[in-house]
């Protein structure tokens, strides 16, 4: 069998071997159609079945209420940064954002192009090493919504619980932790996520939204940017990213076969515990970046006391078959992304490598 890397890439990221193998088996002749899924009409019954199954698996696995639409879009989460305010931030209202790091900063920047925004809480003074106390969140009186980034991929922080926003719609960018743990979808007006971290390959963006959020979009924005266009056409207004949707479907079936999202969370906790424990028991050789109470199950960020050693760590790790352990260029240090598809075996190997590296350099 092919040798697989210990893949800790931040995104696009590891996919389960079983999913890749099934994709390979079905690649040339999908369901005896005599063609690959990439070669068939997105109006064909075979494709439509795949498309609808992705939505129904998402609904089942995440417990999405019937009153929510599930859209399969393109343009990544970055396009959602703009679509959210274009559709949901009318004049006279304020888009409120909790600033937790790099991605929430990008989200608010886009909203500033369209309307009034407010920072409802921020941990910038602590270099974004934690999620702000939920009690510190201040909603403006005329808030259109509160936007949160459930997991900050670059800093490695994650909400442990979500704020109660009363009548104000809560919107969540869950690009880097969707399906990694159970979430009460009904507390959100909208959840969106690019698929390429936890749900499949790049190319498809999932939007889960209460019907009232997506069925009355402003008429004066481009057709493709209106949620209503996609909601009313089952995300088949134009050509969908059919191959990405198909692979996301295989990934969802894989999650289901693992027992569902609650079981996946348990596995994720076991995986990350190995690595966080190695950091905590290193006597200060490794230092976790995130505050203990805000630690992410998806992106483990840490440092070693000199940049020299960090460079050496990356170099040696690569020689040992590890990929993707260099921190994001904006924060430096080291980062291990442990998304759903990263196997326990990779995490065990990393914990062992870290202990060994410390022994040799501590
Ligand atoms: C990766 C990421 C994005 C950007 O996603 P694209 O699909 O590349 O636009 C946005 N938000 C978060 C939290 C991310 O991790």
TrEMBL record:
Pyridoxal 5'-phosphate binds at residues 77-78, 103, 153, 173, 196, 238-239. Pfam families: Aminotran_5. Its EC number is 2.6.1.52. It catalyses: 4-(phosphooxy)-L-threonine + 2-oxoglutarate = (R)-3-hydroxy-2-oxo-4-phosphooxybutanoate + L-glutamate; O-phospho-L-serine + 2-oxoglutarate = 3-phosphooxypyruvate + L-glutamate. L-glutamate binds at residue 43. The modification N6-(pyridoxal phosphate)lysine is found at residue 197. It comes from the Bacteria. The keyword Nucleotide-binding does not apply. It is found in: Cytoplasm. Signal peptide: none annotated. One of its GO terms (biological process) is L-serine biosynthetic process. SUPFAM superfamilies: PLP-dependent transferases. InterPro entries: Aminotrans_V_dom, Aminotrans_V_PyrdxlP_BS, Pser_aminoTfrase, PyrdxlP-dep_Trfase, PyrdxlP-dep_Trfase_major, PyrdxlP-dep_Trfase_small. Keywords: Amino-acid biosynthesis, Aminotransferase, Cytoplasm, Pyridoxal phosphate, Serine biosynthesis, Transferase. Its cofactor is pyridoxal 5'-phosphate. Pathway: Amino-acid biosynthesis; L-serine biosynthesis; L-serine from 3-phospho-D-glycerate: step 2/3. GO terms for cellular component: cytoplasm. Binds 1 pyridoxal phosphate per subunit. Belongs to the class-V pyridoxal-phosphate-dependent aminotransferase family. SerC subfamily. HAMAP family: SerC_aminotrans_5 (MF_00160). Catalyzes the reversible conversion of 3-phosphohydroxypyruvate to phosphoserine and of 3-hydroxy-2-oxo-4-phosphonooxybutanoate to phosphohydroxythreonine. Homodimer. This is Phosphoserine aminotransferase. It comes from Paenibacillus nasutitermitis.
């Amino acid at each position: 069998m092919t040798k697989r890397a210990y893949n800790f890439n931040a995104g696009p990221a590891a996919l389960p071997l079983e999913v890749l193998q099934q994709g390979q088996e079905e690649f040339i002749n999908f369901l005896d159609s005599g063609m690959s899924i990439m070669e068939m009409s997105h109006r064909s019954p075979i494709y439509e079945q795949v498309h609808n199954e992705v939505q129904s698996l998402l609904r089942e696995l995440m417990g999405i209420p019937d009153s929510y639409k599930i859209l399969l879009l393109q343009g990544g989460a970055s396009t959602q940064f703009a679509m959210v305010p274009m559709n949901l931030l009318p004049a006279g209202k304020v888009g409120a954002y909790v600033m937790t790091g790099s991605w929430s900063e990008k989200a608010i920047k886009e909203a500033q192009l369209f309307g009034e925004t407010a920072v409802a809480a921020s941990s910038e003074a602590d270099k974004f090493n934690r999620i702000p106390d939920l009690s510190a969140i201040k909603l403006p009186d005329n808030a259109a919504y509160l936007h949160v980034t459930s997991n900050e991929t670059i800093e490695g922080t994650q909400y442990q619980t979500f704020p109660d926003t009363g009548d104000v719609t809560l919107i969540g960018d869950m690009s880097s932790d969707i399906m990694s743990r159970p979430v009460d979808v009904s507390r959100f007006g909208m959840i969106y996520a690019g698929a390429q971290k936890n749900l499949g390959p790049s190319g498809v963006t999932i939007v889960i939204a209460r019907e009232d959020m997506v069925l009355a979009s402003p008429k004066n924005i481009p057709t493709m940017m209106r949620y209503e266009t996609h909601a009313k056409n089952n995300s088949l207004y134009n050509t969908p990213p059919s191959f990405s949707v198909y692979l996301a479907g295989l990934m969802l079936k894989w999650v289901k076969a693992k027992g569902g999202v609650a079981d996946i969370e348990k596995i994720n906790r076991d995986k990350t515990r190995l690595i966080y424990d190695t950091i905590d028991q290193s006597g200060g050789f490794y230092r976790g970046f995130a505050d203990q109470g805000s630690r992410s199950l998806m992106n483990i960020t840490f440092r070693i006391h000199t940049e020299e050693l960090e460079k050496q760590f990356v170099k040696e790790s690569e020689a040992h078959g590890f990929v993707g352990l260099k921190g994001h260029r904006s924060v430096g240090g080291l980062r291990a992304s442990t998304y759903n598809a990263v196997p326990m075996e990779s995490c065990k190997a990393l914990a062992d490598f870290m202990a060994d590296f410390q022994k040799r350099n501590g």
